[in-house]
């Protein structure tokens, strides 16, 4: 009986992860059959060559890229929020995406015949450097208001974006750069997306160092008292987040709000402990991107809307709601906020 009770308690603890996994598997199966060219289950079973080519060259790589993008960007946002002690910091508001785009443009300017991996290296370096500069800058701000920090990041990202656009116009690279300015999965094919697999080992690294990220998120003095090297863990975590972001930008392009909205929604229900929320954040991020991608494929079918447009619409609305909620209730969970409101009434 004790063993059964323990299993039930463990299932309750991980119920959200189980539900998210089930929904993700179901929609993943649906995603394989949705597109301009319909895939019939009977054709797959019969081993139709054309159907198998569509599945393995286009649909399956696209699905894997979607899952890696959603899980990776959400994890990157969670890490940045924990390390910067601010719920509105993310790859979007921390200049990480803008820096990765600048790195890609520099690779195209100085190495016109560069491969995708060469551009990825430039994107990695630029994203890491840009994120480090942003965090170095906000550490020197005396009054870190909850909204001021992401605003500084947005302004810094706009400065980097301005430099990128200037170089693109000067060297007539605007049309080429547009590929990485708007995120979309329509160009994801076998042989052209595998860089995004780097998100998987990086997410595993985040799991391994989750406890250290929690401690560093408590502040420099708290970390030193526990013997945790503050600067080393801080910049290691930021490097992981920046590399995840860069690997996504190189393959898919810019996708905003995922790393900002998803960790906030999960933490509202699961708390702020990164080890307890990391799995749910990755799963919910993958599910969120998958749903948005499916909507982009069916809204004006047979045409397709870019994933950046769908995520931007839903993400901006959710961000506004989260902004008002955080300013009013802080880090209080929705259930506790409702009880407090009821008790006050």
Classify the beta-strand content into a percent band. Answer: under 5%
Summarize the helix and strand pattern as letters: HHHHHHHHHHHHHHHH
What is the CATH topology descriptor?
A: ABC transporter involved in vitamin B12 uptake, BtuC
For the residues shown, what is the average pLDDT? 82
Q: What global shape is seen?
A: globular
Helical fraction equals over 70%
- As residue ranges, the low-confidence spans are 335-345
CATH superfamily: ABC transporter involved in vitamin B12 uptake, BtuC
Number of domains: 1
CATH architecture tag? Orthogonal Bundle
The description of the largest β-sheet is: none
**SS element count, helices:** 16
Question: Can you give a write-up of this model?
Answer:
- With 345 residues, this protein is mostly helical.
- It has one domain: ABC transporter involved in vitamin B12 uptake, BtuC.
- Helices cover 75% and strands 0% of the residues.
- It contains 16 helices and no strands.
- Helix 13 (258-270) crosses helix 14.
- The chain starts with a helix and ends with a helix.
